[in-house]
Each structure stands twice: as C-alpha cells, then as structure tokens.
Amino acid sequence: MATTVEQKRALRRTLRQRLSAMTTEERKSASARIRAHLAALLPQVPQSVASFAGLSDEPDLMPLSFEPPPGTQHLAWHFPLVSGDDIQLFRVHSPHDLNTGAFQIREPDPQRCEPVAIADINLILVPGFGFDPETGYRIGRGKGFYDRFLASARSDVRLIGIGFDCQLTKVPTEPHDVPLHAVMTESGLLTFR
Question: What pTM was computed for the model?
Fold first, then answer.
C-alpha cells in the first residue's frame, strides 16, 4: 500500500494533467465566475483579506484586489511573500507593488509594501493543487508553505480555498494538514465548517 506521501505525489500528477487540459479560455471564464462568487461574499468581510497572485494554472483573482467590486472598497488586500520556509504578508496597493519572486510567483516588493501580521487578517484566500469536496482538506505543491502559514492563523480567521472544479478530489491527509472552512470554484462555495 502506498504511503500518504506517495499518494500525494501521484495525486499531484493527476491534478497537473487536469489543469493542463483546461484551455486558456476555459481558465479565464472559470476565473471570472470565481471572482463573481467572491464579489458577492466579500462585502461581509470586516477589513482585511489575504489573497494570492495565481500561477498560470490557478484562478486569476487579481482584478478583485485592484478593481474592487461594489461594497468592497473598505477592504485592505495583502499578498504572501515566501521568506525562507515561511510566508509573510504585505499590504499591496497596486499591481506595480508585485515582483516575480520564488517559484515564478508574483510577490509583494518588501521595499514598497508594509508587512502585516497574520493576526490582523479576517479572510485568507488559499491556493492549492487540489481540494477535498467532503472534508475541506487541500493538497498544495509539496513544499508545505501554506500548511505552516495557515497553522499560525487565529481560529476565527475564515480560510477559503480557491480552485477550479477539476481540482475537486479526495485528498489524503497528514497530521500537519490544515482543513479549510470552504472552497470556492466556478460552481460556487462548498462549506465544511
């Protein structure tokens, strides 16, 4: 029987194939639907959102941060920066505050953005490679950055995974994995707790 690590490795291969099968147009359309679902949810968030600048195979959330939909102008947007083995958050005001950093991910420029403690965040939008539609567990790309980061969040911070429908799958778990409260795909919100 395969170990959890081996199961996760095999699942990442499967998910990579699913994501690469999506056309650019399908990805754009699904991203727009995800943003529309989030735009309806965001006015309920009191103050601070941690988002992410997606890779080419991830949903594009950037317009939400820099072209805020009605009712969300009060929100402060924060983006992650990988520093060593950890993630730090920085307040970002414009797309010009982001540079290409580790793993070809657009990250905040620490010279132009102010750092923010995870304790000051109300909602974290979490990327992932796959999301379990029954349990809320996610599988990342294998480095553990988000597992360590999410483990340090306050218990009342809402954690919403962001992905495409094709990323919904049973996810094997390990003790350090952090379950999400919900997952948002182009089909809408799945809530777990």
Answer: 0.94
